[in-house]
Amino acid sequence: MYLVTFTGNLLIILAIATDSHLHTPMYFFLSNLSFVDICLTSTTIPKMLLNIQMQKKVITYEDCITQMYFFLLFAVLDNFLLTVMAYDRFAAICHPLHYTVIMNPRFCGLLLLASWVLSFLQSLLNILLVLRLSFCTELEISHFFCEFNQVIHLACSDTFLNDLVMYLTTGILGAIPFSGILVSYMKIVSSILKISSAGGKYKAFSTCGSHLCVVSLFYGTALGVYLNFAAIENSRATEIASVMYTVATPMLNPFLYSLRNKDIKKALRKLFS
Predict the structure, then answer these.
(1) Three-class SS string for 99-134?
(2) How far apart are CA 54 and CA 64, in angstroms?
(3) Fewer CB atoms inside 10 Å of the end CB: C or N, the chain?
(4) Model confidence over 82-100: pLDDT tens digits?
């Protein structure tokens, strides 16, 4: 699954980079999403595979902190990119005549920069709060990686501030972007329903279908982990949900965006030829 995720997302990046016809805002954000998906899975899966191969399920404190930092960074960045892509589809479908003006290269660059900066600050804040906690010399994390929520609840010191910041940042950085996606799709659906021809409706919706599938997978599992009380317990359901948004969703993204996308398929054929 890791090899499929890495190869599939890398092919999407190469196809978009080598085909000048795909140098548009939609594919610009898609290539960045593919890059972030590679990074997200690379923070956890190689270490897990090494543990399985070596039969030595140990991680140092420093490596655990590093893994948590980069995992939070790329998970939040994934969240922001999905929101930006929803706005891009809203601009393309609801304001087609002004699309190139709205989604100009400078604005796209600013959206990407803002996503990186906010993700960096959120991850840094949470990790700095973890560094103030004291832990026992040996801990057992009932997960396949240093899952942030579980690690802080294994601390020997008071975690009230950590819990408060974690739920506040998760709520704000989860609720606001998700609300933005919902509003964008409400307006998109409203605009599509006004199209008279069935072919026009299908064409308009087909540009959003892949993104909508990815959003459903990512938010349905990620929010289930961090906003559910069961996440505090070492439940099997939490581990399965984590696998879904850390491994399955990044793996499915290239397929969801390429199988029904003629431009991507054409670019991939051109790349291989």
Answers:
(1) HHHHCCHHHHHHHHHHHHHHHHHHHHHHHHHHHCCC
(2) 18
(3) C
(4) 999 999 999 988 898 999 9
Q: How far is CA 202 from the centre of its chain?
A: 27
Contacting residues for 41 by C-beta, under 8 A, at least 6 apart:
2, 5, 6, 246, 247, 250, 251
**Strand (E) positions, 126-258?**
none
CA distances 210 to 2, 30, 41, 80, Å, are 21, 11, 20, 17
CA–CA dist 136, 212 (Å, integer): 43
Class of domain 2-272: mainly alpha
Round to whole Å and give the CA distance between 47 and 64.
11
Helix (H, G, I), strand (E, B) or coil at 195: coil
Alpha-carbon distance 156 to 153, whole Å?
Answer: 8
Span 12-49, pLDDT tens digits: 999 999 988 889 999 999 999 999 999 999 999 999 99
CB 99 within 8 A of CB 91: yes
Detail the DSSP E strand segments found in 68-196.
Answer: none
